[in-house]
Design a protein that fits this description.
- The protein has two helices and ten strands.
- A ten-stranded antiparallel β-sheet has the order 1-6-7-8-9-10-2-3-4-5, with helices on one face.
Length: 171
């Protein structure tokens, strides 16, 4: 399933606004601009929606091919598991495929996502049931609030206007 450029653009615009709020609360200084204009994207549809301040990468080629994103961005494992509680949800990310699950739908729904990387975050954006879905992953200790486990990444999950927090780890 290929996500249309319009849907990716809409998801990234929505994500950028929400992401700015999250980043603004955490960091007083603005994110540095990347004026090189170069990203690892091989897909023109993905490159069209990238702003100059982020790098867009394909998990099949470019700097992220070895299992992490480029050195000037947040390094993430190629395969991730993100989870949230109250409400419970899960997302398995493997390249450009995200499998989103809930207790009501444990098998999950697979969607194609675009990867957008910044200096301290990586976002995965696609469409789930006609709504934009975005996962923004940032480094930092994260607790799921239900166990003693500390995860290495914090996650913001957006589906349409619904925003939830969660945690992530490599798998």
């Amino acid at each position: 399933m290929i996500v249309s450029v319009r849907r990716i653009f809409r998801a990234l615009v929505l994500t950028g606004l929400a992401g700015a709020l999250v980043t603004g609360c955490r960091n007083a200084a603005p994110e540095p601009e990347d004026d090189t204009g170069q990203g690892g994207a091989t897909d023109a549809a993905i490159a069209i929606v990238a702003s100059p301040s982020v790098a867009v990468e394909s998990p099949r080629s470019g700097p992220g091919h070895a299992g992490t994103v480029a050195a000037d961005t947040l390094a993430l494992p190629a395969r991730l598991r993100a989870t949230g509680t109250e409400p419970f949800w899960g997302a398995d990310i493997d390249g450009t495929v995200l499998t989103y699950s809930t207790p009501d739908f444990p098998a999950g729904a697979k969607i194609t996502v675009a990867r957008r990387a910044g200096p301290d975050f990586v976002e995965f954006a696609g469409t789930l049931d006609g709504k934009p879905l975005t996962l923004r992953i940032a480094a930092g200790p994260c607790s799921d609030g239900m166990s003693d486990r500390v995860y290495p990444y914090a996650v913001t999950r957006e589906i349409g206007p619904d925003i939830e927090r969660g945690c992530a780890r490599g798998r």
